[in-house]
Amino acid sequence: MEPAILDVHPPHQAAHSWKDFFIHIATIVIGLLIAIGLEQTVEYFHHRHLLHQAEDNLHSEIQDNRQTLAADEKQLAETEHRMEDNLKILADLKAHRVPTEKFGLQWEWNGLQSAAWDTARNTGAIALMSYETAEDYSVIYSQQSLVNDQAWVYIRDVYKCGRPVATRKVEDLQPEEIDEAIVNSKQTLTDVHYLRDLMQSLNKIYQSEDKAL
After folding, report:
1. How far apart are CA 36 and CA 165, in angstroms?
2. What pLDDT shows up at residue 30?
3. How far, rounded to the nearest angstrom, does the alpha carbon of residue 164 sit from its chain's CA centroid?
4. What is the mean pLDDT of the chain?
C-alpha cells in the first residue's frame, strides 16, 4: 500500500491587494511546512519502529545462535575424540596389530543463522544504528560467518575420511589406503582444532558484547 501524499491547495479566489497576496503566500508556506512536518514525523516513527524491530530480531537471533554454538561445541568434541580413536585403529592396522577399538565416523552440526542481520541490512535498519552498535553487530556476524565456513571444511573432511570404508570394513583396506586414511584423519583433526578456536573466539565476542548490546 503506497503512503498517502498530502497535497497543499491554495485558495481559489484571486488576490485583490498586496495584503491578500501575502496572506495567500503565507497560507501556502504554512501548508507546505505542515505537510513537511507531518511527513517527517511519519518517517521518524517509521524509522524508529524499523530500528527497534531490527534490534529485537538481532538480539533474539544471537541468543539462539549462542545456544546452537554450545550444542555444536559438544558435538565437535565427540567427533574429535572419535577421530583420535580412528587414528589409533589405523596405526594398529598399519603395524599389523589387531585394533582394540571399533572404527566409526559420526558428526552433527547446526549452522549459525544470519536472517535477522541480512534483513536489517536490506531494510536499511543498520544505517539507523549508531556507528558503535552497527560495528558490534558486524563483528559478531563476521565471526559467525567464519565459523560456518570452517564448519563446511570440517564436514567435507569427515566425508572424505569415510569414503574408503563406505562399502568395506576398515580391516580390508590396502596399505596405501590406510596411509591415505591416516593423512585424511590428521587433516580433519587439524581443521577441527581450527574450527574449535574460531568457536571459542566467537564465544568471547558474545561475552564482550553482552553489555554493549
Report:
1. 72
2. 78
3. 34
4. 87
Yes or no: say if 24 and 15 are a contact pair by the CB < 8 Å rule: yes
Q: Cβ distance 110 to 194 under 8 Å? A: no
Mean local confidence (pLDDT), 24-40 = 73
The Cα-based distances of 178 to 20, 73, 175, 185 in angstroms read 100, 29, 5, 10
The pLDDT, as a whole number, for residue 105 is 87
CB contact at 8 A, 93 and 99: yes
Residue 17 has pLDDT above 90, yes or no: no
User: What is the number of residues in the chain?
Assistant: 213
Inter-residue contact 65 to 113 (CB < 8 Å): yes
Domain spans, the chain: 20-209
The C-alpha atoms of residue 45 and residue 138 are separated, in whole angstroms, by 25
Write b or e for each residue in 98-131: b if 16 or more Cβ atoms lie within 10 A of its Cβ, otherwise e: ebeeebebebebeebbbebbebbbeeebbebbee
Lowest-pLDDT range of 90-99, 102-111, 204-213: 204-213
Q: pTM of this prediction? A: 0.77
Q: Which residue has the cell 575424540?
A: 81
pLDDT class of 31 with cuts at 50, 70, 90 = confident
**CA dist 176 to 70, 76, 92, 93, 182, Å?**
38, 28, 14, 12, 10
Asked if residue 86 lies in contact with residue 103, where contact means CB atoms within 8 angstroms, the answer is yes
Contact present, 213 and 132 (Cβ < 8 Å):
no
- Quote the CA–CA distance of 18 and 21 in Å, as a whole number: 5
